[in-house]
Design goal:
The complex is a heterodimer. By secondary structure, chain A is α+β, with helices and mostly antiparallel strands. Helices cover 58% and strands 15% of the residues of chain A. In chain A, strands 1-2-3-4-5-6-7-8-9-10 form a ten-stranded antiparallel beta barrel, surrounded by five helices. In chain A, helix 1 (14-30) packs across helix 10 (264-277), helix 3 (64-91) crosses helix 11 (301-309) and helix 5 runs antiparallel to helix 6 (160-173). The longest helix of chain A is centred in the first third of the chain and has 28 residues, at 64-91. Chain B starts with a strand and ends with a helix. Chain B folds into two domains: 2-95, Roll (PH-domain like), CATH 2.30.29; 118-359, no CATH class. Chain B is rod-shaped. A seven-stranded antiparallel beta sheet of chain B has the order 4-3-2-1-7-6-5, covered by helices on one side. At the A-B interface, helix 1, helix 2 and strand 3 of A face strand 6, helix 2, helix 3, helix 8 and helix 9 of B.
């Protein structure tokens, strides 16, 4: 069968991103932070539109207005949590438990937020005119999350590797682009060994092994990913090298240190370039055969909660 | 005309089609290759946007970006479309982005300076206006209990020093409550609303009753001038604002801004210290005590503090001791002839206090 190969590339420029961040800073400052959702939209629009597969850019179609509404809802949620906490402390005279309440609610809020965030982000991600979509179920994710968290705590963190893999698998198998679905084949045991070996060797080699470790983690992430449509699929391959990681990390560090952080946008661009340059897509499936099948979704509350909690979102 | 054929994506599949396009008034028309005028798709320019990457412009025909055409930059159509779409989308954000980087940098500088001025000069007086002396006293009481928790309070010393303070006219608005904490730290501080905490360490370093009056006058001036409330207001509001506007910054830039903020806090607290020295000396004069005690106090403190090099003075919360001694010297010139012995009651209280603190 015919094999198709696709390359990703990142065409953004540090100076453009820098200017976007400066303008966003000015507007955030003038509006005392209210502009934040619009600023975020501008930044995402830029980052998406400069990332390409097969020469065609991604588009982020989310708007500041949507994210502002989501932001307000997210803020109200946190105010309500703190309010309940205060009520428990003062109203019910359980001053020890009250301040803990918002934290105890987090294991429930985080999966809800992740669910909402992926639903929004994916629906607003478009490539070659085809919308992405997230078809995960909120309850399933919550059960998975609470089970994983519980086991991770009682195994003193060891189960964390399996938990992370389960979470990644669940999220990816529910990410669609048109009528094609992603799949992730990571395995908790293997991931655990990469983490343990990497951790020990990095300590023993005073950090030098860290670059090999980074490459292993990146490879494990990319090489286990595939996109499936009907009986055809496309595999993701990493062609990253240890030297590449070394150059990326060390130069980014030097850039940040010697410019007291001003070069931060340039390091983002360098990192995006590195990741996109080192991922190759190959398989029988053609990316020209995708059919529009995911619906639009405009509620950004989850996205804004993850933002407030500072949870990073992959993709 | 091959030049007028473009790649078109229809939002149904990811396959591209060859199309011809035409701009008529404020709409883009997309025709299939047969150029059948009746089959044209119409898109309003209002909904269009475009992205330029390498040699192509990607012209999105709807807000959802599902339908678009790819127009090579060398094509005549690009110029036509770009101007048409620009007219529809000349937002102020785009205009801001088109500014030179140094213009934008200037904007950032102006904002930071405004924030600095606002919080240094405007916020503290506003907060002070809204907090009454009564409220300040109750805030101070709360602070006092948490500050002294776990500290070893010297009850005998506290009793004597309180008597000593009561014999002075220190504050009209605030009840001055002095506490001696049994600790070798050479320090004393004032809380909002009238509590003054003095460590026995500093009492042991004082050489005479005038210096104790100077110390109490200095701390009382912090109370009278509501310094701790003002600096708390300034610190809290600045850090709150910085955290809001730097949300999108990375750790290093945030750290930088926080440190600049810290320097400003330190500078502010040095201003307050100088003011407390000055007001303290005025208090001494009004209590008929020669203000030269303040200068002696500074000289005693200088003996035991390894002096911070002048180049590092910006990192200090207190003005350099030398500078404070000079300032005190200037103030005292007028009072050179002032013959004001410490009253006997105070002198004996002072000696008693020395004894109590020394034995511990």
């Amino acid at each position: 069968m015919e094999q198709n190969t696709y390359r990703l590339s990142y065409l953004g420029k540090g100076i453009d991103l820098f200017k976007i961040q400066i303008v966003n800073f000015i507007l955030n400052a003038i509006t005392l932070g209210i502009y934040y959702p619009w600023a975020k939209a501008k930044k995402l629009q830029y980052l998406y539109s400069t990332t390409t597969i097969d020469g065609h850019p991604f588009a982020f179609t989310g708007t500041g207005k949507e994210m502002f509404k989501g932001f307000i809802r997210a803020v109200l949620l946190f105010i309500a949590l703190i309010g309940v906490g205060l009520y428990i402390s003062i109203g019910l005279h359980m001053s020890q438990f009250g301040p803990l309440f918002p934290y105890l609610a987090l294991p429930f809020i985080i999966p809800i937020a992740i669910h909402g965030a992926y639903k929004y982000r994916m629906a607003k991600t478009v490539w070659k005119g085809i919308r992405f979509g997230y078809t995960g179920d909120r309850k399933e994710l919550m059960l998975l999350f609470i089970k994983g968290l519980f086991l991770t705590i009682i195994t003193l963190g060891i189960y964390g590797a399996w938990f992370q893999m389960d979470l990644r698998k669940y999220i990816f198998q529910n990410i669609k682009v048109g009528d094609a679905a992603f799949k992730y084949h990571g395995d908790g045991g293997k991931y655990f060994s990469i983490i343990i070996v990497g951790y020990l060797l990095t300590i023993l080699t005073l950090g030098i092994y860290g670059f090999w470790w980074q490459k292993k983690l990146f490879d494990y992430f990319v090489n286990n990913l595939e996109l499936v449509k009907d009986d055809k699929k496309i595999n993701f391959y990493s062609i990253a090298t240890v030297g590449g990681f070394f150059e990326l990390v060390v130069l980014n560090l030097l850039l940040i240190v010697f410019t007291v952080g001003i070069a931060f946008p340039w390091t983002i661009v360098r990192t995006m370039k590195f990741f996109t340059d080192n991922i190759v897509l190959e398989g029988e499936m053609s990316l020209d055969e995708l059919q529009q099948s995911q619906s639009d979704f405009s509620n950004a509350t989850g996205d804004d909660i993850t933002d407030i909690l500072d949870l990073g979102i992959v993709i | 005309m091959e030049d007028s054929l473009f790649e078109y994506f229809n939002g149904v599949s990811s396959k591209s089609y060859q199309v011809r396009i035409e701009v008529i008034k404020d709409e883009i028309y997309v025709f299939d290759t047969s150029y059948n005028q009746d089959n044209g798709l119409r898109y309003s320019l209002k909904d269009c946007s475009y992205v330029v990457l390498k040699n192509n412009a990607f012209i999105y025909l709807n807000k959802g970006a599902t339908e678009y055409i790819v127009v090579p930059l060398h094509s005549e159509f690009y110029v036509e479309l770009a101007t048409a779409i620009k007219n529809a989308d000349s937002t102020w954000y785009t205009k801001l982005l088109q500014q030179k980087w140094y213009t934008l940098g200037g904007g950032v500088a102006i904002i930071l300076i405004t924030v600095y001025l606002f919080f240094t000069f405007l916020v503290p007086p506003i907060v002070l206006k809204f907090v009454s002396a009564k409220e300040e006293i109750s805030i101070g009481n709360n602070f006092y209990s948490s500050v002294t928790e776990g500290e070893h309070i010297d009850t005998a010393g506290t009793f004597i020093i309180q008597k000593f303070a009561d014999n002075l006219k220190l504050s009209k608005t605030y009840p001055i409550n002095v506490t001696v904490v049994d600790d070798s730290i050479v320090n004393a501080f004032a809380l909002p609303g009238g509590h003054i905490v003095v460590y026995s360490g500093i009492i042991n370093k004082l050489e005479n009753a005038q210096e104790l009056v100077a110390l109490l006058s200095h701390e009382t001036s912090h109370v009278n001038k509501r310094h701790s409330l003002a600096s708390m207001a300034s610190r809290f509001s600045t850090s709150l604002l910085f955290s809001v506007i730097t949300k999108d910054f990375n750790g290093v830039s945030k750290g930088l801004i926080e440190n600049v903020n810290m320097l400003q806090v330190l500078k502010y607290s040095r201003q307050l210290e100088s003011e407390a020295d000055y007001e303290g000396m005025k208090l001494m004069v009004s209590n008929n005590i020669n203000p030269v005690g303040m200068k002696w106090l500074m000289e005693d403190l200088k003996k035991l503090n390894r002096e911070i090099p002048a180049s590092m003075s910006f990192l200090s919360t207190h003005p350099l001791t030398d500078q404070r001694i000079n300032d005190a010297d200037l103030f005292c010139i007028k009072y050179k002839e002032m013959n004001a012995p410490v009253p006997d009651v105070q002198q004996s209280l002072w000696e008693e206090l020395r004894k109590v603190c020394n034995t511990q």
